[in-house]
C-alpha cells in the first residue's frame, strides 16, 4: 500500500444511524474474517504447545514486556476517597502515548513505518482510557485491530496466526491484567453478570477453540476450581476462568452468570460458534462500544463490495420441542438486529452425554445449588436504524 494512502484514523460511528454502514463496511467484514482465521489456527492447540516464533514476534513480545515493567515502576496514589481507578494509571498512559511511535518503530520493519500514523492510535487505545481509568472489550478490540492492520501491511501473515493468538495476544492479556489489578481499573461499560467477563471477551472465543476435540474436558468442567487450576495453562478460556476465580468471591452462578449458563452447552464446538455470534451482538453491534472505533485506510469504513445484504444464514433454526427448554429464546433477526444471545442455552445442566472415566467433569454439577437459578430473559432486539 502506498504511503500516501495512509491517514490518521478517525471516528465514524457518531450516532445509531451509523451502525448499518458499519455492519456493511469493509472493516466489519475483514475484521470478522480475521478473527475467524485466528480462531481456526488454534483449534485443538494448547497454549503451551511448541511453535516457532520469528525475531519480529519475539521483539513484539519484548516490547509488551517493556510496558509491563513500566507498570511496576509507577507508584500508586492515595485512593482513600476512590473505590476504583487509581489516578497513577494516567502516568502510565501518558508515557504510552509519548513513546508509542518509538516503541512500534523499533519493532516493525522500516518499510512499514509510513503506516505508523494509522497503527499508533490503535496501539494506544488498546490499554484503557485515561479519563475514566477503565478498560473493556472495546480496548481489547483495538489491539486485535492493530494485529489485523499489521497483517494487512504484510508484517505478519496467515502463517503467524497461531503465534499471534497464543504468544502475542496472550502476552497482551498479561499486561492488561497487571494494569487492571494494580490501578483498580473500572470495567468499561460492563454489564456485570450479564457479560462474559468484566474486561475481556476474545480469549473466551480463542480459548473455546483450543478445547474443541478435548476428551478430558467438557464445557461444564470449568465450574470446578480444581479442574480449572490444573488445566488453565492449556487454554485461554480456562486461564480467564482462573483469573475470575482469583478476583471474585461468592457463588460462580451469581458473579459470572453467563459463563455459568454457557457451561450447559454440550460441546466446545457449539460454545465456540456461539461465542462468535455473541461477540457480534455484545461488542460489534453495541453502539456504546463501537462509537469509539477509529477508521483509516487499513481498517476502512467504506462499504464492502462483497458483504451480502441478507443475514439469512445467521437466523437460528426453530427450536426442537424434543430438546430441553430454552433459557433465553432468540427471536429471528433481521439485519442490524441482535438479541442478548445468538445461541441457545438449555436451562438444565445435565446435557453432557459423555459418561467416561477419562472425562474430568460432566453431568449435573448445578445440582450443587439447592435453589434453581432464575432464568434470564432477553431484552427485545435492537430496532433497525
UniProtKB/TrEMBL annotation:
What segment(s) does the record annotate as region Disordered? 352-385
Cell location:
Cytoplasm
Q: Which reaction does it catalyse?
A: [protein]-peptidylproline (omega=180) = [protein]-peptidylproline (omega=0)
UniProt biased composition (Basic and acidic residues): 363-378
Question: What spans are recorded as compositionally biased (Low complexity)?
Answer: 352-362
- Stated EC number for the protein is 5.2.1.8
List the keywords (alphabetical).
Answer: Cytoplasm, Isomerase, Rotamase
Q: Where is the signal peptide?
A: none
Q: Name one Pfam family in it.
A: PTPA
Q: Which GO terms describe its molecular function?
A: peptidyl-prolyl cis-trans isomerase activity; protein tyrosine phosphatase activator activity
Where, if anywhere, are coiled coils annotated? none
- Which terms under GO biological process does the entry name? mitotic spindle organization
What biological function has been recorded for the protein in this entry? PPIases accelerate the folding of proteins. It catalyzes the cis-trans isomerization of proline imidic peptide bonds in oligopeptides.
* Entry's family note: Belongs to the PTPA-type PPIase family.
Full protein name: Serine/threonine-protein phosphatase 2A activator
